[in-house]
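[Q] Does anyone have a clean structure-token version of this?
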Amino acid sequence: MLWTALLNGVNLSKGTPYANIGRRCLDNIHVVQIDEVRKNMRENILLIDDDVELAEMVRDYLTREGFDVTMVHDGETGVREALSGRYDIAVLDVMMPGINGIEVLRRIRNASAMPILMLTARGDDTDRITGLELGADDYVPKPCTARELTARIRVILKRAGGTSNATPRAAIKIGALTVWPEKRKTEWKERLVDLTSTEFSLLEVLVRKAGQIVSKEELSEQALGHPLARFDRSIDMHICNVRQKLGPLSDGRSCIQTIIRKGYMLIGE
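[A] Here you go.
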């Protein structure tokens, strides 16, 4: 599917009057300074989209932003490349012929917790919710700006990078749950739990404030790195996934309690 508007709603599709203008606009966009934490590193991005021309435009922009970008244009190749272990993040378009983005996400998640950013049609709640339920780290509705896409990628990579450069911290244990922040490792009842980077970040915020109500706004700011958007249910989807992976307490309740109209609270036994 064409990325019908990557910059400010302008149609950049091949063959339209604005295609060449769109490319010049990309050339003139102000280049955001690379995060100092990662300025000496070049993360590898896997871009999975069937629209070759527009994918090349995005690749060019992301390359100028300091990333190494590999493009693939079909789902089968996308899955194979994603599972090669060569990439730090995949940017995945939902609407592709053959194996669509949702099925690609499903296959990747069956074997890997690599960060995945979904590109969804604006207003298409079904694909967005399904993607989050399957473990996508975040989504960007189209049309979007190249700068927004870049910012979301950086936030996800920063989360996934953990705190490897920080002073190691001891494990945090709350009942049957144990979390190692510096390793981004989680155990539930001494069983290793495989969480995505976004799921871990949300859980870590709740663990550090165990017994306290944490609002969705606070979770979005601290764990996802951006303000909570109106009608955004992505946090609910991620929390649902974490609950399923952890399992119940001995009394059948979840250790992550929903506090109606207020947020979430992590509890022990």
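[Q] Thanks! Anything notable?
[A] Residues 1-14, 25-40, 163-168 have pLDDT under 50 and may be disordered.
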